[in-house]
Amino acid sequence: MLPRFLTSSFPMERHYFAVPKFALSLIGFYPEQKRTLPLRLWSFFNFFILTYGCYAEAYYGIHYIPINIATALDALCPVASSILSLVKMIAIWWYQDELESLIQRVRFLTEEQRSERKMEYKKRFYTLATRLTFLLLCCGFSTSTSYSVRHLLDNVLRRAHGKEWIYETPFKMIFPDPLLRLPLYPITYILVHWHGYITVLCFVGADGFFLGFCLYFTVLLLCLRDDVGDLLEVKSIEISPSAKQEARIVREMEKLVDRHNEIAELTDRLTGVMVEITLAHFVTSSLIIGTSVVDILLFSGIGIIVYVVYTCAVGTEIFLYCLGGTHIMEACSELARSTFSSHWYGHSVRVQKMTLLMVARAQRVLTIKIPFFSPSLETLTSILRFTGSLIALAKSVI
């Protein structure tokens, strides 16, 4: 039995960016939050914790490369995700006004779609966005928690065998010695543990924005497809519409063309916001997945479980990007096919020209334009193939 917020019976307006709003609000970075002084201080505190954590992890990993490659990879594997989350945090802060504008405009456009058929589209894709983003949150939460559980279990076993407790943090980091000794050690441990959750909340928020916008744009394109088909439908191809009817159809068609243009403009605006995040994610995805799989091969016991969960989390991230891009492309293609298959040829020359113009524009598939990559399931296949090559190379070297 799923929780109510993961079902289609949950109110649509509360489904809208439900998980990204929850995640980013916890660390003070949701664009629609009122920027009070306490919230600014809280968000800066989280930014500082994440930034220092990235530095400490990277320093530790680089330091241990010539000493112990397994220990080095244990630090460098999660630091890649931490650095990506830092990039996402900075991007969300930098584009917060643009993101707020996009959130509000897309909310307004989707709320205008109220017919029974359109509500079914909204239920389907709103629920899908919430479920998939919540899955990513669960994977990330499990990954971060598993690092702490691993460290605690290792030390409990050491104490059971009469050995001393190792004063290390859940994620391998370099700290000044006083911070790794009592009485400051518990505070350091808690902050490092929170660093892991900040990483998770950042990538859940950013990735949830990407997937959410893609699926909401898909809803708008499917509603536009239905409106075009309903407008151009004729009872009989042998009976030509009257001049008054044609004038009305022209006016409505102009509105539909404007709607399509606005969806394309919103997609371009989203590209401007997400290009750095998406490019960084696609460039590093193979490296992160490959490193985590190598760690699975190097570790034993609970260490394997940690990196299996980590691999699932990273794989889910890249899958959401590719799935969102695929949905937009398929909706554009469906709009072009449906519009061309309508009864456009039974109308005046002006309506025919407007219809064919929309078909031509719809064939120029909307997508989040990033250098070298196009988010789609085909791209995901290529990434996984390249990851396999990296794993094979690493095994031969190690």
Please supply descriptive tags for the structure shown above:
398 residues, mainly alpha, 0% strand
Distance between the termini: 45 Å
Strand content: under 5%
Which stretches are poorly predicted, pLDDT < 50 over at least 5 residues? none
DSSP strand tally: 0
Largest sheet, in brief, is:
none
Order of helices and strands: HHHHHHHHHHH
Binned, the helix content reads: over 70%
- Seen as an oligomer or otherwise, the chain set is single chain
Tally of individual helices:
11
User: What is the averaged pLDDT score?
Assistant: 85
Q: Provide the gyration radius in Å.
A: 25 Å
Structural class: mainly alpha
**Dominant shape:** elongated
Task: Walk me through the structure.
With 398 residues, the protein is an all-alpha fold. Helices cover 77% and strands 0% of the residues. The protein contains eleven helices and no strands. Helix 3 packs antiparallel against helix 4. The longest helix is centred in the last third of the chain and has 56 residues. The protein is elongated.
SSE order and pairing:
Elements lengths: L11 H4 L2 H10 L9 H28 L4 H26 L1 H16 L4 H45 L24 H48 L10 H56 L3 H39 L8 H15 L13 H21 L1
Helix pairs in contact: 2-6, 2-7, 3-4, 3-7, 4-7, 4-8, 5-7, 5-8, 6-7, 6-9, 7-8, 7-9, 8-9, 8-10, 8-11, 9-10, 9-11
